[in-house]
Amino acid sequence: GDGSQTVTGVIVVTHAYRRAFAVILAVLLGIFAGCSGSNEVPTPAAEQPSDTNSQAGSTQGSASSATGEPSPGGSGENSAPSATTPAKLGNVTAVRLADFRSGWVGGKGWIARTDDAGKSWRVQHQVEGAVEQVFALNHQLAWATVARDGAADGERLLYHTKDGGKHWSLVGKVPQPGFLHFVSGQEGFVAHWRTTDGGKTWKPLPVPKQLTGDAYFHDKANGWAVTQENGVFQVMRTVDGGQSWSAVMKRETVAPLSGAVIRSAGKDDAWIQCIGGYGMNQTSYSLFHTTDGGRHWQTVIAKSTAGGGPAPGFPANYPGGPTIDGSAPGPLYVVNPDIAFMGGRCMACDLPNTIGWTKDGGKTLEKGTESFPGYGDMLLAFEDGNKGWLICSDSKEPTVMYTTVDGGKHWEKMHVFN
User: Fold this and answer.
1) For the residues of 127-173, what is the DSSP string, one character each?
2) Run of H or E including 250
3) How large is the C-alpha radius of gyration of the chain?
């Protein structure tokens, strides 16, 4: 009876004193902590921020491919361990994208990757020499050619990554500085040379005589070449790996060609850029396109200049045909048989770089309204007809990267490589 109630009362009183003592102790401890000059609460180890990606900006591993599917590895697996990042990356000399958000650039001594459309870059590998080309088959497989410093005969080394750039390895050498592209992880081409072991070894494919510029093989069977002799140039085609060649276009030209650039977006597709004469910072050139193996040709550009003469393949009094801005050709980037982007250069202009494009196979040509600074390399890379990168460099100013999401009509400055 009464005893049990008495015991309960004692227990309640005891707990009340304990709570009061705890409150007083907490207040005193707070006062002492304030007097010590530190009011910082330690962050639990699990909540500490990571500095893994702090050297050159974090990379995002969630970029999607052009098909809309997540890139291989997904969710951060593309964030490669960075090498020591130079204080200045310097001029960019090569570019290739896997999609609009993800891709690589190279310069003198380094290869870097972005996964946020160029906002930030991570140096993945350092090399001895200048990166001349980068080619990406997808988000994981990429190759880079490097002109090694001091090497005899312009030796070019070939580096390869299988994991998005987490690791780059030296796999061999490329036999010449032609356009590099791979059709699988093992088979690739550089001009008329073919590899079937990922670039370790190369074998030449037969090419016609009187070759101008480099031949181009879309695959092991289908190839293109430009030849010239006695005031006539010809576009040649092979469908049997170079064992036989046939002329699919023949044109007289006032001045001999000084070069030719060939790109292809299908076994029957070819874009042939013929470089003519030059003078007074002006170069004449023509761009032709076929989608049916050379049976029919579309003149995309026929640029005549005062310093370079008539466009190649046209008569002496030819005033010039469809063209873009600039007085000399810039880079040619072919997306598919309908879409191609072309740079124009005007070395006598304050803003020397301009962009043009066709989205109907060359039937019509459009000119961009913006011009860009930079008297060094001009580089283009596109995911599709809307999303692309433009990189302009200069010997005195930092290299700048711009991006477009509306097919070149408007450009946003995305990154300055300094």
Assistant:
1) EEEEEEEEEESSSS-EEEEEEETT-GGG-EEEEEESSTTSS-EEEEE
2) strand 246-252
3) 30
Backbone phi, psi, residue 104, to 5°: -125, 150
Encode pLDDT of 146-159 as tens digits.
Answer: 998 776 666 899 99
| CA atoms within 13 A of residue 35's CA, in its CB half-sphere | 6
Residue pair 357/363 in contact (Cβ under 8 Å)? The answer is no
* Residue 65 confidence (pLDDT): 32
Distance, CA of 310 to CA of 316 (rounded, Å)? 6
Report the amino acid identity of residue 391.
I
The DSSP result for 110-126, as a single string, is: EEEEESSTTSS-EEEEE
pLDDT one-digit tens code per residue, 14-33: 344 444 444 444 444 444 44
Q: Are 283 and 352 in contact (CB under 8 A)?
A: no
Q: Give the model's pLDDT for residue 198.
A: 98
Q: For residue 158, how many other CB atoms are within 10 A of its CB?
A: 23
Q: Closest Cα to residue 328, out of 298, 359, 297, 349?
A: 349
Confidence of residue 88 (pLDDT cuts 50, 70, 90): low
Choose among 404, 383, 380: nearest CA to 393: 380
